[in-house]
Amino acid sequence: MSRRPPKGEYIETDTGNKVSRKANLVGTQNIILGGRTVIQPEVMIRGDLTRTAASASSTGGSAPANNTAVAIGRYCFLSRGSLLRPPGRVYKGVFTYMPLRMGDHVFVGHGTIVQAASIGNNVHIGHGVVVGEFVIIKDYVRVLDGAVIPPNMVIPSFSIVGGQPARVVGEVPEGGHETFELRDLYKTVGNNPQPINA
Amino acid sequence: MAPLTPYTYIQCPCSDTSFSPSGAPTSDDKTEPEDDDRTFDPRAPRANYSLYPLEYLLYCEDCHQIRCPRCVNEEIVTYYCPSCLFEVPSSNLKTEGNRCTRSCFQCPICIGPLVVTSLEAPPEPTLLAADNTAQPTGPYVLTCSYCNWSSTEIGIQFDKPNGIYQQLAKMSNGGKPRLTAKEFRERSRKEKEGDPESPSSPLTNSDVDAELQFSQLKAFYQSQLNETNPQAAAGLGSLADLGISSPGSLSRIMSMYTGAGHGASHKQSRGRLPVMREARTLDEGFQEADLDDSALIEKLRASAFEDTASTDQRLAQQPSLPSHHPLLFVDDLRPIPYLLRTKRSKRCPVCRHIISKPESKISNPRFRIRLIAGSYIPTITVRPFHAPESHNVPSGLRPPVPAELWLAPHRASQYVLTFQNPIFEPVKVTLAAPAATPGRFASTVTVLCPQFDISANTDMWDDALKEEGEVQLQLQRRRAGEDGGPAQPEPGKIWERGRNWVSIVVEVVPASLRLDGLPPGPGGEEPDRSPLKEDEDVLEIPMFVRVEWEADTRDDVGSSTTTRDNKEAREKRELAYWCVLGLGRIARG
Fold first, then answer.
1. Does the ipTM surpass 0.90?
2. Among all residues of chain B, which has the CA nearest to that of A131?
3. Does B383 touch chain A (CB under 8 A)?
4. What confidence score (pLDDT) does residue A85 get?
5. Where residue A181 sits, what CATH number does that domain have?
6. Domains contained in chain A, number
7. Domain ranges of chain B
8. Contact B409, B586 (CB under 8 A)
9. Is A106 domain-assigned?
């Protein structure tokens, strides 16, 4: 209540995205937000790192305007200081970036760096995590705080991973699926946030 | 120390009824859990095996009982590789083992994933486009992108980028080809014939690794058995699939009984006692023990500590390694093929009904059946009464990072327990907690409202519609409390109430952790003054929860409408269990 900036801390879009004015989004035309996604202050999304032209011919059928760098689904939550950066590699002799895709209900913790190729639905990535390049995270995965996921790792569904380098340390129990839901968390952030329910 | 956020663990009724710390066997039946005399001790060593967070518990609808991961019966639905996510048919498991036989490997140094990369430098991008599009050619190596290990360090390169598992199986460290049993036989035959084309060196011990030796020994004794007793050999032949259900074992057992039971055949077998020869030569699998460790010692002397493999690295290796001496050095390690993972369904141990069944497809994360305890028994959440109000956290800092809360000894502190009812019937909850927590440091506990009702859960749609209003209500209530001075929890009264939840207050007076302040034992003996054990400073309250509700009698699918009309067909249900509330650590001093 006390020191609310006059314009509101967040920009709220028609599709329900809440983007902090202090977030640093580069190349916004290449960033797709699915809606109801929260982007907190000091978050950086590198939308400028798109595919280089060479690959456009190889993909063939895709539309020419398709140079999405970061695609984010619904109800994602990017905590303060996190970074989303598309992964890059040498492909057919040319260095190119590949798009970073993120499903629905993905939580990214404070100061976490994500360079994954794909992240599924209902994924919780803790604080201070490094997700290496071209990592594939499937659905219902929990990444513990401070984990370092080595590049090219594939994490199957219902895994709990942690450690440096990260390894599968456990399995998400059947009853734990609902804890990945981010609808309630979405409501607690914004220009008129609601209290967190007990 | 990791911050301790308040937690709730629930005891599965499958665990033994040895509540008493003395460990005396109790004959009490689980049907009388309301036994007041004994309280559950969360610090008892056995408690570790019976306490679970709610998410880990399942619920059997037929037995009306909680089931934990320890008591359910698991059945494997699918095997798959966690790296390439390919399903492995169970027939392959028998022949190929429990590891991925594609190209999925883990780094032997850091267990990160390995990728196949070409050793050849990528073509210059300035060259003609036709050259650029050409796929890189071999040789290929496995490299770890985490620790930069590469299979060149153990002298292994591959000709093709796929089928690495098969290629690796034919190579020993250093790039020397490994002989298969067939190749070995071929070579030894040529040697005996004095074939001039035979490879330069004669076969030695070092050409035979553990796996080859095993297959040779197996083949040799197989042939011995065949010679001495063809009947029995038929049974022993299938050593590969041991197990009482396999036809091989069955026929072996049959031949044991029928062969030795009757007089005539008994004599016969006596007449020619099977004489079995032991393996004698290298191609029969015989190897002289190499007792000369001087080379190893010399190597160990010349190498640094980093050159030796750590215990973790050795444990991660495949058990059947082609090695002659115990694994000591980093250059003996081999890439680890990924262990397969499974999808499992779970059955109730009592009634055998399936209580959890995932979709068999690997790519599908859904479940066909998923009876979780969270949708049958109330969720209990704990938070400190005087915690900084969560809505005062700046929204930029959400979700709030949990801060460690220390409990001051001898000072009463209050906690709010919130019970959320997941079922569509109103429930009556009765709580019981011992006045003092078990253990050396007995904190006193008072549950201010041990009995209350919670209204029924409603549909998800109602939830969405009502939510806005409810939040407003809640806020109003809080504000009202603020206006009329700080609201005080009263004994016997519910603190807060919502649509399907109720909050009550629990008051605790934490004990002091000072060892000299310990009261003497019941017989006046000296108290245990040993130093503080691990986690002994955590304040844990055992609490017995009894939930009662009225439910429709068990109806078959399809007849639910008829029973709903019939109000008589309701029965009283009751579920009772122990749970443990972990509140926080007691401050020392």
1. no
2. B146
3. yes
4. 94
5. 2.160.10.10
6. 1
7. 7-15+378-521+531-557+568-585, 209-284
8. yes
9. yes
